[in-house]
Amino acid sequence: MTNSQPHPSTAAHFIDGLVECGIGHLFCNLGTDHVSLIEAMAEHARRGQPQPRVWLCPHENVAIHMAAGYAAVTGRGQVVLVHVDAGTANAAMGLHNLFRSRWPVLLMAGRSPFTLRGELAGSRDNYIHFVQDLFDIGSLVRPYVKWEYTLPSGVVTKEVLRRAHSVMHSDPQAPVFLTLPRETLAESWPAERVATFPAARYGAVRAGGIAPDDARRIAERLLRAQRPVAITSYLGRRPEAVAALEALALACGVRVHEFMPIAMNLSRESPCFGGLDPARAVAGADVGLLLDIDVPWLPQFVQPDAATAWIHIDVDPLKQDFPVWGFATDVRLQGDCATALTQVLEAVHALADDADRARMAQRVAAWEAELPARRAAREAAARAPGAVGAISPHHLCALLNQAITRDDIVVNEAIRNSGAVLQQIVRTQPGTLIGCAGGGLGFSGGLALGAKLARPGARVLQIVGDGSFHFSAPTAVYAVAQQYALPIFTVVLDNGGWQAVKDAVLRVHPSGEAARADEFHAKLRGEQRRFELVAQAFGAHGEAVREPAELPAAIARCVAAVDRGQAAVLNVAVSPL
Ligand SMILES: Cc1ncc(C[n+]2csc(CCOP(=O)(O)OP(=O)(O)O)c2C)c(N)n1
Ligand SMILES: [Mg+2]
Q1: What's the first-to-final CA gap in the chain, in angstroms?
Q2: Closest residue to atom 11 of ligand 1, CA basis
Q3: CA dihedral in degrees (348, 352, 356, 361; nearest 10)?
Q4: Domains along the chain?
Q5: Is the distance from the beta carbon of residue 471 to the nearest atom of ligand 1 less than 6 Å?
Q6: Angle at 69 between CA 63 and CA 70, to 5 degrees
Q7: Nearest CA to ligand 1 atom 21
Q8: How confident is the model at residue 577 (pLDDT cuts 50, 70, 90)?
Q9: pLDDT, tens only, 262-300
Q10: Global pTM value
Q11: Is the shortest distance between the CB of 545 and ligand 1 below 6 Å?
């Protein structure tokens, strides 16, 4: 409320609406469109009124992924504020990642003023207001959101915010987009005209369980199966689902596999954990569970047995946002895996007899007996340290595994070295692995910052390819780490460029001209590749290692830096492409 305005501005109502939605953080990159919000925040602060905390992110790529990291760890949707079309365009790639990962984030952008001559407060007063006005700002992000809107009037501010919040939180979760015209934010409304919309009556719609008959039929099939398997990627986004999966796998002797996991779905120490190779999962399976997964295998390389019965339980089984999908299933059920698998387990308990229980226990015991050999194979893969300038990623990741605790969080953007990360850094606790289901590189810095903000007591280890590090807007990442004391530990796997691009060429043209010439246009090799200095420029501890023997001490120094509150970047020269 300013002297000239007897009532609070829409921007002030907007901040109150965010608080009513339980939004505690605003991940922001601001501009001329946000003037009334900035003013209202100052007024709120002066009056001691509650408002979300502002986290300034010098690049939108960081803001959008930081919000996503926080949402991934807490399960609570977050809000990002960016500048008109320019900020929206910068955030759009991140929005692709959030959409594919089903992370709930409300992206908001201001709109250029629509009045030119001072007709209303907030009217155009700057050159850029003419060039940043476009017909269809939503078109920049429409493929990546499930709801978009423009705030039409301050009087509905809280209704629109609640709607955005409830839609993004409803299953399957996804980002939403809201634009805020500058004059609308500036207009004032008496408090009694701006109604409140409580979650109790306007809140999200969550996926539930499955029909009891379906649960019973699945239980019967699992009890009859000789070789039941499950494949998942994102079931572990709900920690409760991890316990439900483990209990069902133990009760029914189900081998659980992952393909492209973006969460910790089952403890890697569980006897039921079957690894990351879908070819091994499908071979000989008689009953298969597809649980919260978008791509269970690559059909060009993996063909399941025709005789396998596939049961698909997923918060999003239709995959409506995939133009083609193409995985044949016999039973398709939409539901929350934590609830559905608990229902199936209860049916199993009701149906199983002593003979069933003994058979399952025997199957699990056989896997239990394989655990030492599995550990030995993992250690063997990590033993050879590699050479100077060509350090083995498995060796490095095994050392990192020793340096962190089971509750620390690993953010994986290791691309072609993801196998080493997933195999050597043994995750056993729900919520300790964050990957990204999208294909937009440069997500891990922001995700790591968001995870650190959400769980300050955990170390957050970001493992990122050199190419992906370039995409992550690293100066912005370490600027945020410094400004807000969010000490993340980044390990850059520098293999001299884009292994993924080289591998892609070789898959399609294995003995073509590019292979013969060894020219894949994938090498990034200037004379200096000092990723650690980028971070040092913004107050982080930075080290580079080319010599395998120097790794343990370097890792220890980085961990010590992180533990005293300073971000750290370890730039490791791994086997080059
Ligand atoms: C924003 C974006 N641009 C380009 C690509 C295409 N792309 C996929 S993987 C890759 C290389 C990644 O390099 P790096 O992070 O070093 O991992 P590596 O392949 O070396 O393991 C590129 C350029 C992409 N996925 N996203
Ligand atoms: Mg690389």
Answers
A1: 60
A2: 498
A3: 50
A4: 10-202 (3.40.50.970), 212-374 (3.40.50.1220), 384-573 (3.40.50.970)
A5: yes
A6: 90
A7: 416
A8: very high
A9: 999 999 999 999 999 999 999 999 999 999 999 999 999
A10: 0.97
A11: no
The ligand 1 atom nearest the CA atom of 466? 16
Residues 6+ apart with CB under 8 A from 507: none
User: Which amino acid, one-letter code, is at 328?
Assistant: A
Ramachandran sector of residue 419 (left: φ over 0; alpha: ψ -120 to 50; beta: rest): alpha
**Contacts for 79 with CB less than 8 Å, ≥ 6 apart:** 18, 23, 25, 26, 27, 52, 67, 105, 106, 108
Q: What is the pLDDT of residues 156-181, one digit of tens each?
A: 999 999 999 999 999 999 999 999 99
CA distance 288 to 277: 15
Tell me, using a 6 A CB cutoff, whether residue 432 lines ligand 1: no
CA of 307 to the centre of ligand 1 (A): 38
Both tokens of 245, joined, read 């999966």
Residue nearest to atom 16 of ligand 1 (CA): 467
DSSP state at residue 185: H
Closest residue by Cα to residue 81 from 2, 164, 1, 187: 164
For 315, which DSSP code?
S
Q: How far is residue 357's CA from residue 362's CA, in Å, rounded to a whole number? A: 9
Residue 468 beta carbon below 6 angstroms from any ligand 1 atom: yes
SS (H, E, C) 362-402: HHHHHHHHHHHHHHHHHHHHHHCCEECCEECHHHHHHHHHH
Q: Which two tokens stand for residue 265?
A: 């779905």
Neighbour order of strands in the sheet with 255-258? 273-275, 255-258, 228-232, 287-291, 309-314, 331-334
Q: Is the dihedral of CA 131, 132, 133, 134 positive or negative?
A: positive
Instruction: List Cβ neighbours of 280 (8 Å cut-off, separation of 6 or more).
Output: 257, 274
How far is the centre of ligand 1, averaged over its atoms, from the C-alpha of 492 (Å)? 13
